[in-house]
Amino acid sequence: MNLEEYSGVWVFIEEKNGEIAPVSLELLGAGRRLADKRDCKLSGILIGNNISHHAATVFEYGADTIYVYDQPIFNDYRTESYMKALLHCCEKYKPEIILYGATSTGKDLASAVATDLPTGLTADTTELDVEEDTGLLLASRPAFGGNIMATILCKKYRPQMATVRPKVMKALPPEIGRTGTLIREQILLNESDIRTKVLEIVTDTTKKVRIDEADIIVAGGKGLGSAEGFQLVHLLAETLGGAVGASRDVVEAGWIEHHHQVGQTGVTVTPKIYFAIGVSGAIQHLVGMRNSSLIIAINKDPEAAIFEACHYGIVGDAFEIVPLLVEQFKKSMAGEEVKHGGKV
Amino acid sequence: MLHIVACIKQVPDTKIIKMNPKTNTMDRASAPAILNPYDEHAVEEAVRIRERYGGTVSVLTMGPPPAVKAIKKCIAIGADEGYMISDRKFAGADTLATSYALTKALEKISQIKPVDLVICGKMTIDGDTGQVGPGIARRLDIPPLTSVKKVEEVNKQDGYVIVHRKIEDGHEVIQSSLPCLLSVEKEINEVPYASFPNMLKATRYDPHIWSVDDLEDVDIKQLGLKGSPTIVAKVWAPPKPEGGKVLEGNPAEKVEQLISVLLERKELFEGRGRA
Ligand SMILES: Cc1cc2nc3c(=O)[nH]c(=O)nc-3n(C[C@H](O)[C@H](O)[C@H](O)COP(=O)(O)OP(=O)(O)OC[C@H]3O[C@@H](n4cnc5c(N)ncnc54)[C@H](O)[C@@H]3O)c2cc1C
Ligand SMILES: Nc1ncnc2c1ncn2[C@@H]1O[C@H](COP(=O)(O)O)[C@@H](O)[C@H]1O
Residues lining ligand 1, judged by CB closer than 6 Å? Predict the structure, then answer.
């Protein structure tokens, strides 16, 4: 393999329900930095049906080029069809680096592509860098249950690939009107070449606020004692207009469904405010929330590890503190409104 | 009759493992070796499918000799047969080399009894990638179905399965031809305590153990460290958060201070807080 033949940084652009996944825009931000350092192009690769119009957004978020496979057969995400498009594009244009969101789609696709190429793939990356002169990707991630951080390299194979956790990279502010080169590609693929079929897509409407998109998260832990006690978390979340998060032990106790779980085996979140109430602060929980802008912990044990990970801590009983907080908050917001002339 | 193979791995319990703070390496002796928690669900699902449709459940692992214990655990859950590939030449494998070796073993198992369905766990708690399952599927050239949270139907006669695949905001119902590979979520089932007869069977059970030489058409260059494109270049301790300000005073005073912190960001609460 002649490593010199490979150049450029690519981001797999994930599209669903007519929208680009936020993680793809974050990766364009991260990819831009890598491409600038390498003095090479940043490209998006977009696969789907009736999706070409997304190219404009991809340029505004930093890409120079976009490769588009816009064909009816790509209407649903399926490993085999998407993989074939990506392999086709890789073979033709030989990128040095490909980044994917560590989502159900991104992880599925990247694993299949890596095997066929073949090349190395680093999963669930949280830090990315590149060696300016060699183009070596430095992909770092928590390993062994978050006990250590490890930097993974892929020296002898190209492209170098990584899936990246949502919400850890930053999207660039979109530059309105910024454009680039759109390259249309196509592959010959029949329905009979693909061995899976999506029969139905069921969207769970009970998830009012998705925790990976929420600005405010109120997360509760085992310290709330029972499913009834956990209602306190719902109450505060409702008061603040936030989403509800939980530790794994809470999910395992059956107080709330798994999609609320924050952490290594749950969701990674970076809200503007994160409340951890009755959460001890196990390393597996911390890896999922420690990049939040403001972390507030309420725990009755002053030695709890969560106090080393928070910005503000209250040592106290959640059953005393939270109701007070709800009451005070309502009062002061009402007061604020009065100050602003009673504006709603 | 269906033949289902679950891929399982023995892993150190990363929850209680101690790290050497100087070298940032794991003190393996400090953590008991357990069956990868996600793989328990893979085996359990295989057993449930067998209970519904009949057939055989085999488990396969690549690992050092003590991993026999993980196989026995699977027998206790209800698996019928256990296969293990164990050889120094497999050591140091990343996901690409692991899926290669496991595929060679699956090819050999298929000669004994053709395989209809391969089931993997979502991920291992030490490798932590979820890449080995799809890797095996690509190498066997069968469809990979990841994030499976429910197996609705397995129809060997007409050669298809229907599963629910978890996605960020719900799930997809997917039909795939057989054979195929499933990577299953934890929520797919609950693993009950082992029955007494299964436990008894497990203690007496001896798995089939193969070395590299027992497998066919193996390209040694694709095994172990040599066959692994990725390497771990550096490990370091995760950044220790500094710890923040612990608010002082009686509960009411603490809450008051917290409120002022929150109100610095009041744009986040627009229109909130009214009873
Ligand atoms: C492979 C692996 C993956 C994992 N993945 C995750 C993951 O994704 N997410 C996750 O969260 N965990 C995960 N865990 C589990 C993790 O190690 C911890 O066990 C878990 O986070 C602890 O949950 P907790 O903080 O709710 O409970 P506990 O550790 O039991 O803590 C409860 C806390 O509540 C406090 N408390 C008790 N009563 C009160 C009260 N009245 N008021 C205020 N505080 C009170 C206590 O002081 C204590 O600190 C994982 C573990 C493993 C091994
Ligand atoms: N050494 C191994 N032996 C058998 N199965 C494995 C091995 N490593 C990984 N697997 C399977 O692949 C899944 C994903 O593993 P990983 O890619 O390491 O996260 C696991 O849940 C197992 O089902």
Answer: A 145, 221-223, 247-250, 261-266, 278-280, 282, 284-285, 288, 298-301, 304, 317-319; B 14-15, 125
